[in-house]
Amino acid sequence: EWGVDETISEEPINWFEKTDIAPIKQSTTASNSINTSTTPKAKSTPHLATHQETVSQATSVAAKCTTLDELKAAILEFDGCSLKKTASNTVFCDGNPDSDIMVIGEAPADKEDLEGKPFIGEPGQLLDKMFAAIDLSREKDFYITNLMPWRPPGNRKLTDTECEICLPFLKRHIELFAPKIIILVGATSAKALMNTTDGITKIHGKWKEYDLSDSQVPMVAIFHPAYLIRQPQFKKQTWHDLLDIKSKIMELK
Ligand code: URA
Description:
By secondary structure, this protein is an alpha/beta fold.
């Protein structure tokens, strides 16, 4: 998807790291084998973290943050997710940080990437209308973020690896925000936080509990507005889910 269609050396080189490695000269041989006389030796090959090391690094960096501002700064510093390299902005949050409702989507798309705010494109505008229909506004009543702070190229689906790397930041985000209700928008954040492989048509509207250190927070998934734009037949079920969310909010007041 990034346009890699051939390998040019036997050892991977992280070209994003600053090294003294000279550029590989074009081999003049017609064969596919590597001409070692033209392959430069790296003076010191940078250590490339394994996936598990990157997840552990994200977990320990996130754990040290004690405020949302610190978490945002830590995410801005974190270089373990390759999506950051192609994104224009790190998208952290929008809405009311003093509210009780936390809304969690998937990842920024093009508009969000350009402006650095979640859910401001067409699906985001539909999401605002959906919440307005149950008297909730982003400015006053809820806080909104995404599982992934960086836009995947071409708005492609996130890979499991990318989700696993950013999940520790999202979990810390939830702990620091300490919501009374969590609303998961779409299948990706729902699968990640509900720890299920079931699809959104099965899990939407079913309340589960999210374990915070000292409490259980009700959480529910709804269809993603981008999906509703493509599949409007699910709007009816979404309306029932929204009414149910409204009742739960009233119950908790
Ligand atoms: N879709 C999402 O899940 N999040 C955004 O911020 C935008 C589109």
